[in-house]
Amino acid sequence: MLYVIPLHNCDLPLLGLCVRLSLKSRNNLILMVVLSNKDLALKNRGKTVITIDMDKQKITVEQVKTVAKLARLNLNDAEISQFSAQLSDILQYIEKLNQLDTAGIEPLAHCLPVSNCLRDDIIKPSLGTEKTLSNAPDSDGRFFIVPKILDESGGL
Amino acid sequence: MNEQILKLTCKNLRDKIAAGEIKSINAVSAIFEQIEKNDAKIGAYISTFKEQSFAKAKEVDEKIAAQKPVGALAGVPIAIKDNMCSTFGATTCGSKILQNFHSPYDATAVEKLLAADAVIVGKTNLDEFAMGSSTENSGIKQTVNPLDYSRVPGGSSGGSAAAVAAEMCFAALGSDTGGSIRQPAGFCGIAGLKPTYGRVSRYGLVAYGSSLDQIGPLTKNVEDCALILNVIAGHDEKDSTSIDEKIAPVQDWLATVNTKPQNFKIAVVPELFKGADSEVVAAVKNAIEFYKKNGAEIVEISMPHFDYAIATYYLIATAEASSNLARYDGVHYGHRSKNANDYIEVYSKSRDEGFGPEVKRRIMLGTYALSSGYYDAYYLKALKARNLIRGDFTAAFAKADCIVMPTSPTTAFKIGEKTNDPLQMYLSDIYTIAVNLAGVPAISIPCGKDKNNLPIGLQIIAPAFEEAKLLQIARLFEISRP
């Protein structure tokens, strides 16, 4: 029997078309096809058995790029392809929460019966500049140093 | 002499040191010989503190010789997981991003160990930022299972479990967010206790999932869990989630651990046995049979929401992680990329270069779950599911004193077996994760071996703050075994 499924969790960089054969069980030979993007899938439609519409995934390559930007992670193309497949898998699994009826259930952020833990407002010694800066990648002994944030025109 | 020392439990060693029968310096010396002989293969430690350990041992030995008072762990060599801040050595958290981070302060749990006169011999390997179930996600090194070098020690406190099992320390601290103390304890054949959330201060524990993280001991037996818990438990004004002692007083758990529990009820959840290997199920059923013969009433219950724990956990823990790990910005401490051209790249390239794949995956998942348009569907839904899961525990504890189930569905798996399939790796935490969502205490103790001679973990779960009963029930089983 032939099955066509997305190749998840692949160590190889998923650039271009990648086809891998693997024996999943004694009787079934499984053909795994992965395409890194939809354009490529369309371009190669005639050449492959079946193309996989990446848009059907839980999370698309474009969404992964947006999330990476929000998370300030400079991911490369291979990581983006890999994450879109793996995160889709995980999100697919997480969908099972939709089977739960949570109408009228309070969200639980903290499981113990405690609230408003206040301590006396007393000034105590803090770490001090030297210790605080001791692990800084760049500092002048008084401040953390970072690249300039304002450009020459004064705009952000 | 060394071999005899290494076989001792924490409590035995402590008693012998206090009585002047063994010198701390001999115990430390035996431990370092063992580390030097075996750790190149096992890889449990990220860093060790030989000079400092001998100095501390000497200090303790002198105090004892002069009949001065000493702490509850006087002279006992102990290891700590490398996600606890210490002013000695680096605090790497198993990550390249913190590889050269030297904490300016000690975690409260570390301070308490030192105040109890323990000798901290080293800091142990872990999955990067405690994210993983096999210690394979460490950005620093590989740790193997001391019982079979081709297998994982479990995780994320894999280094701590391996160090205890290989007699390279007498006990270790770990942290448990979804099973990270109990599962490696189970895989390495030792005891591992996750206390009630809030029982031990998290101050100085590098944050992963703040509403789930808890520090606890990995030890050779249950008695030692009680001893270490005595030392590390308690309210800390530096951690507002550590529990007020008016609500849950610190007890002398060591004093009560050997009391035989009377008239106790154990809940079992038959539907949960379906997912485990037959040898694991058989060993756990044997343990239940033992309890039945020793006075326990066995109550069969159902936990209808248990099956949703993994999905719930991987939304809540990753959401918290994505927020907690935003602090690694290449500015204040940790790795800064040399290739950054502007301030945005200082963040994004430093983080890309410093974090490993599993950490990035979890940050991505958490960021997605919290992002606008998905928050209600994912994060809020998970918080509601969490309430339902906790409700299952509340209902169970209305009928029984504790719940017994396997720690893990399998024994230690092969290195590399699950690294390419994150979801499969997540599913291996099925029995431990719900406990963190409910905040209750649980312990893993050995209850048998499989055909490959690998240990099987028995998990016992108790209501919040009922560590005393939990330890007694676990101890009852332990002392019955050869």
Descriptive report:
The complex is a heterodimer of chains A (156) and B (482). Chain A has a domain at 2-94. Chain A is 25% helix and 12% strand. Chain A is built from four helices and three strands, in the order βββαααα. Chain A has a three-stranded mixed sheet. In chain A, β2 and β3 (29-35) form a beta hairpin. In chain A, α2 (61-70) crosses α3. Chain A is flat and about 55 Å long. The radius of gyration of chain B is 21 Å and the shape is globular. In chain B, strands 1-3-2-4-6-5-10-11-9-7-8 form an eleven-stranded mixed sheet, with helices on both faces. Chain B has a domain at 2-256: Amidase signature (AS) domain (Amidase signature (AS) enzymes). In chain B, β7 (265-268), α10 (278-293) and β8 form a beta-alpha-beta unit. Chain B has 482 residues and is of the alpha/beta class. Chains A and B meet through α2 and α3 of A and α11, α12, α13, α14 and α15 of B.
The CATH architecture of one domain in chain B can be named as Alpha-Beta Complex
- Counting copies of identical and different chains, the oligomeric state is heterodimer
The CATH topology of one domain in chain B corresponds to: Amidase signature (AS) enzymes
Tell me the structural class of chain A.
Answer: alpha+beta
Q: Determine the most extensive contact between two protein chains.
A: A-B, 54 and 75 residues
What's the helix and strand layout?
The complex is a heterodimer of chains A (156) and B (482).
Chain A: E1 2-5, E2 17-23, E3 29-35, H1 38-43, H2 61-70, H3 77-94, H4 129-133
Parallel strand pairs in A: 1-3
Antiparallel strand pairs in A: 2-3
Chain B: H1 2-7, H2 10-18, H3 24-42, E1 45-48, H4 50-65, E2 77-81, H5 108-115, E3 119-124, H6 158-165, E4 171-175, H7 182-188, E5 191-194, E6 215-219, H8 222-232, H9 253-256, E7 265-268, H10 278-293, E8 297-300, H11 309-324, H12 343-354, H13 357-370, H14 376-399, E9 402-406, H15 422-427, H16 433-438, E10 442-449, E11 455-461, H17 467-479
Parallel strand pairs in B: 2-3, 2-4, 7-8, 7-9
Antiparallel strand pairs in B: 1-3, 4-6, 5-6, 5-10, 9-11, 10-11
Helix pairs in contact in B: 3-4, 6-7, 8-17, 11-13, 11-14
